[in-house]
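Propose amino acids for all 188 sites.
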C-alpha cells in the first residue's frame, strides 16, 4: 500500500464527474487500499477517488456517526439520499483535504443515506442523522459529482473562501497535489 498525493483545489480531477465501476479489478483493489492509507496519513474522515486523481466513482470513510461510533469502509458506485432539513450550523466548520488547512460553515442536510457495494461486491447501506458521518457522506458524493463544498457556500462566504485559497498561494506555486506522509494540511 502506498500513500498517494492528494489533489488540491484547481486540479482538473476535482471538477470532473466520475465513472461507474463495472468490475472490481486488482487496480480498483489497489486504489482503495491506497486511499485508506492516504486518508489515515492525512487524518481525514473521508477520501473520494478524485482526491487521488482517479476518475472512479468510489470513496472511503473513517468517521464517527451521531452516536460517536467510528464507522469505516469503502463504497463503490454510491447513491445518496438526503433527508432532514437543510441547516447551516455557524459553529461547525466543514473542511476538505483538497482545500487543506481551511474550513467554513456549510449548509448540509441533517441526514444522509448512501447505498452501494463494497470491494467484495456485497451491498452496503450507511446512514446517519445529525453526526459528522451524515455530513461526510454528502461531502464525498459531491466529490464524485465533480464539485467541492466551496460550491455550497453562501456568496459572501465563497468570496472569503476563494480569497483564503488565493492567499495560500497553491496556484501561484503551481501546486496541484500535496503529500500527506510529509506535511500536515496546514503546512501545504
Ligand atoms: Zn473533500
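Proposal:
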Amino acid at each position: 500500500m502506498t500513500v498517494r498525493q492528494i489533489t488540491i483545489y484547481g486540479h482538473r480531477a476535482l471538477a470532473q464527474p466520475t465513472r461507474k465501476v463495472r468490475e472490481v479489478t486488482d487496480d480498483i483493489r489497489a486504489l482503495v487500499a491506497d486511499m485508506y492509507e492516504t486518508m489515515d496519513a492525512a487524518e481525514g474522515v473521508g477520501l473520494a477517488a478524485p482526491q487521488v486523481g482517479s476518475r472512479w466513482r468510489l470513496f472511503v470513510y473513517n468517521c464517527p456517526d451521531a452516536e460517536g461510533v467510528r464507522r469505516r469502509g469503502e463504497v463503490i458506485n454510491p447513491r445518496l439520499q438526503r433527508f432532514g432539513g437543510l441547516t447551516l450550523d455557524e459553529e461547525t466548520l466543514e473542511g476538505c483535504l483538497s482545500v487543506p488547512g481551511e474550513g467554513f460553515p456549510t449548509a448540509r442536510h441533517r441526514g444522509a443515506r448512501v447505498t452501494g457495494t463494497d470491494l467484495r461486491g456485497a451491498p452496503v447501506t450507511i446512514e446517519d442523522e445529525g453526526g459528522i458521518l451524515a455530513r461526510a457522506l454528502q461531502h464525498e458524493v459531491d466529490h464524485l459529482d465533480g464539485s467541492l463544498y466551496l460550491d455550497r457556500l453562501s456568496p459572501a462566504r465563497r468570496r472569503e473562501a476563494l480569497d483564503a485559497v488565493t492567499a495560500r498561494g497553491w496556484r501561484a506555486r503551481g501546486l496541484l497535489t500535496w503529500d500527506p506522509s510529509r506535511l500536515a494540511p496546514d503546512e501545504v
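The longest strand covers residues 70-87. The longest helix spans residues 26-41.
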